[in-house]
Amino acid sequence: xxxxxxxxxxxxxxxxxxxxxxxxxxxxxxxxxxxxxxxxxxxxxxxxxxxxxxxxxxxxxxxxxxxxxxxxxxxxxxxxxxxxxxxx
Length: 88
Description:
The protein is globular, with a radius of gyration of 13 Å. It has two helices and three strands. The relative contact order is 0.30. It has one domain (5-83): CATH 3.30.1330.40. By secondary structure, the chain is an alpha+beta fold. α1 packs parallel to α2 (43-54).
């Protein structure tokens, strides 16, 4: 795991990309994103890392939540997404 926020954000987004591929969805199918981070003022770093992975796909509705810590020591960010698949 990377030790900086940019690297961890890229890693989290790559993990999401793997899960999304398994579900058959792409970045354009994401309708909501929630970001939990111990450094909520570093929005520019987080956004740059997200854009690096998504290729500049449109950002969905998003909430950025500042927290004091995450479950894994050294983890700076956690990202969750909701996608719409078009299937019922």
